[in-house]
Amino acid sequence: MRRPLHRLDARIKLVACLALLVTTSVWAGAWRLYALAAVLALAARIPMFGLAARASLVLPFTLVFAAMTAWSGDWTRASSLLWKSYLSALWVGLLMATTPLELVLKAAGRLGAPALVLEVMDFTWRYLGVIGAQAARLKTAALARGGEKRFDISASSLAVLFASSHARAERVHRAMLARGAGGRRA
């Protein structure tokens, strides 16, 4: 059963997410909004551990800047960088857990976001899926040739992955041009 937060119009959720992101970045007491994030996740029946784990993916990147800030002696700003980036990732995670990307992009378009930016985001998302599928095929091929059970990412396998993905992207581009695509998607 879809919860009310899932059924809410994507434009409302997008504007609310942007408002929460701005509030998180400018308000020193935004740490209080962690409770709101927890309430929204519970109301939408989103697994808290999964949401928290996905949001924590920003921490390694933020930790670098927080460490440099702390090293310069500003411990308050360093901790603020960490918790604000994590809370911001929670907002985006909540949006994406309750709204498919296609609806978020349509909502952004209706709210005036540049069409080219939205198209690039859509193609990037689609090609991440293509790269993931290609990585799965490479893993299957390696296992079929007697490779180990685990697939270690090495420089050579990454090179093969990106070369084959690039070649596929070029073939798709040529096919789109042959069919009369002029840079705008329907």
Please, could you describe this protein's structure?
The mean pLDDT is 88. The chain is 76% helix and 0% strand. The longest helix has 30 residues. The chain has nine helices and no strands. It has 186 residues and is mainly α. The protein is globular and about 55 Å long. It has two domains: 105 residues, no CATH class; 65 residues.
Q: Helix/strand-derived class?
A: mainly alpha
Distance N to C terminus:
31 Å
**Cα-atom radius of gyration:** 21 Å
Strand content: under 5%
Mean pLDDT: 88
Spans of at least 5 consecutive residues whose pLDDT stays below 50 are none
Quaternary structure type: single chain
CA-based shape: globular
**Into which percent range does the helicity of residues fall?**
over 70%
Order of helices and strands: HHHHHHHHH
Task: Count up the domains.
Answer: 2
The count of helical stretches stands at: 9
Q: What kind of sheet is the major sheet?
A: none
